[in-house]
Amino acid sequence: MIVRRRFRFEAAHHLPRHPGKCRTLHGHSYELIVEVDRPVDPASGMALDFADLKQVVRQEVVAALDHRCINELLDNPTAEEIARWTWTRLAARLPGLSAVELRETADCSVIYRGS
What we know:
The protein has one domain (2-112): 6-pyruvoyl tetrahydropterin synthase/QueD (Tetrahydropterin Synthase, Chain A, 2-Layer Sandwich), CATH 3.30.479.10. It contains two helices and five strands. The protein has helices spanning 50-65, 79-90, and strands at residues 2-13, 26-37, 68-69, 97-103, 109-112. The radius of gyration is 15 Å and the shape is elongated.
């Protein structure tokens, strides 16, 4: 069973290796979708409680990124690198983690499924 939950946070960054306008400081209203694939526990009838997923993602990711300049955490915080960073923060605490999708805008996102 695939369990998904969406999170939102605001953050700024600049891309020092980008040749265009993203090289300068700017911000996004990010949307993060975390997906976990686990079997359903017959006793509870759930694969993962949404509240448990919410707690882990808020503690490990949203609290670290919300209203921050992401360059304080990552040298070149592209969407791809933020998604990979997110995965590494969550993998140990969310067995069955299957995908992390990070949306920078309504039209642009990356999906990371681990190495």
